[in-house]
Design goal:
By secondary structure, the chain is of the alpha+beta class. The chain has four helices and five strands. It has a five-stranded antiparallel sheet with strand order 1-3-4-5-2, covered by helices on one side. It starts with 13 loop residues before the first strand and ends in a 6-residue tail after the last strand.
Amino acid sequence: MPGLHYEEFTEGQLFEHALSRTVTEADNMTFSLMTLNPQPLHIDRHFAESTEWGQPLFNSLMTLGIMIGMSVSDTTLGTTIGNLGMTEVRFPKPVFHGDTLRSRTRVIAKRESRSRSDAGLVEFEHECLNQRGEIVATCRRMAFMRKRPVSS
């Protein structure tokens, strides 16, 4: 299913994404090692057990990727030109192996592109929640979005 074009977004629009994902130790280990992140909080269970968390923390950058990835099919699939930036990234609660994540997205703002008549900018606010409904991640993302093609 294609994403939405610039004109189809409205400020305040809310998307409750249907996808959810349970994160695993294998996900955490693989992502941490693939990104060359040797943080023992992520990859060393014995070390992590001695911290205030008592267990490994799920890598926050993968949480960010999952949160935004869950939004793609509802919002930008095939209609985005690219991401222009992400700001206000926060991780208010930890994510652990076995947590099930879901996300929602709100359109915060939009404006026409000053440089391209066939595009506009849409600012999204993403929230990621665990199985208890606790917000575990938030982010604002500016996307450069295609406008609907002009019929000839």
